[in-house]
Amino acid sequence: QGRLNYCADGSSFYEGGWQAGQKHGFGKQTWPSGNSYQGQWLLGKMSGQGAMIWRHGSGSEKYSGSWVDNSPHGEGTHTWMADDQTMADTTQDSWLVKPSPPPSAAAHLHGSSKSHQTHQHQPQPHQQQQLNNRYTGQWNWGKRDGKGTFYYANGAYYHGEWQDHVKQGQGRHTFDDGQVYEGLFEADKMVNYSKPETFVGALAG
């Protein structure tokens, strides 16, 4: 038991708590890709409160919050960022174009959780990226699931129910021009959305 600094093959680096031959307690791990995790470990796995940064060609992603068995699970925040922008910088437009419903995968998050699935040792970023958007809501083993709010970079946002990473159930979408659709969502789509500027669900703003 104690603290350990080590560098594996000159590429992966860990500094932090150590117990029974495994990462345990508070520590920071950096991978060859430049991805890094700083936070709590439980017998070799990311578990507890921590922050993970994924780096890739179009920018970076950051999740900060609760982890269980190497997966975001519980309260947390996930943000997509272009280059070295901070989480507060949300200047780019989102991919939301009416009349299409907003797409499903990019954000900043804050929330809570449910069931279990198989995990990889190093978490991978989501396939689709919408830079400078953010999601605040519930996580279930790495996926948006439960109640949550998705903020688009252009000022639009959605608040409502999520299931298996997509909008599912009752929700409210506020467009960047102030118009509001409130009603049922299925498979990430507005069920009663008919045509631009027209909503069969509740309309306000």
Automatic annotation (TrEMBL):
Q: Which domain of life is it from?
A: Eukaryota
- Sequence ranges of Low complexity compositional bias: 120-130
**SUPFAM superfamilies noted in UniProt:** Histone H3 K4-specific methyltransferase SET7/9 N-terminal domain
| Entry GO CC | axoneme; motile cilium
**Location (main, coarse):** other
Compartments annotated for it: namely: Cell projection, Cilium, Flagellum; Cytoplasm, Cytoskeleton, Cilium axoneme
Which UniProt keywords are listed?
Cell projection, Cilium, Cytoplasm, Cytoskeleton, Flagellum, Repeat
Q: Gene3D superfamilies, per this entry?
A: Histone H3 K4-specific methyltransferase SET7/9 N-terminal domain (2.20.110.10)
Q: Where is this region: Disordered?
A: 89-130
Q: Per its UniProt record, what InterPro entries does this chain match?
A: MORN (IPR003409)
Pfam families cross-referenced by the UniProt entry = MORN (PF02493)
Q: What is this protein called?
A: MORN repeat-containing protein 5
| Species of provenance | Polarella glacialis
